[in-house]
Design a protein that fits this description.
4 strands; transport; alpha/beta
């Protein structure tokens, strides 16, 4: 399975340096949404990395597809070059708390 990303150009460079071969650079959420839908059709893509800001702008589509698709592809939201979105940080803390059993301090 492949890892793919849809991010701003700066984040895409970092992901390529980390070994992500399919790092798509986008300037707006509409372009991201098109690429996202194409990726969902590709069977080789097992993990899709999105920046939080793009995922937020894509809105319900990402949430619906996360629930609808089940296990694969795994959709991971990461902060972009401007940092984490405060409203998304709480969700990450909850995931870590459930997975590890410890609450993460700020």
């Amino acid at each position: 399975m492949e890892i793919a990303s849809i991010t701003d150009p700066t984040t895409a460079i970092g992901l390529r340096l980390a070994g992500v071969r399919e790092a798509h650079e986008v300037e707006d959420w509409r372009e991201a949404e098109e690429i996202f839908e194409e990726m969902l059709e590709e069977r080789e893509v097992g993990i899709i990395i999105l920046t939080e800001r793009l995922a937020q702008k894509m809105g319900e589509k990402v949430l619906e597809l996360k629930e609808e698709r089940g296990i694969t592809p795994i959709i991971v939201e990461i902060p972009d070059k401007e940092g984490a979105l405060p409203e998304r940080a709480e969700a990450v803390r909850e995931i870590v708390k459930r997975a590890v059993g410890v609450e993460v301090e700020r």
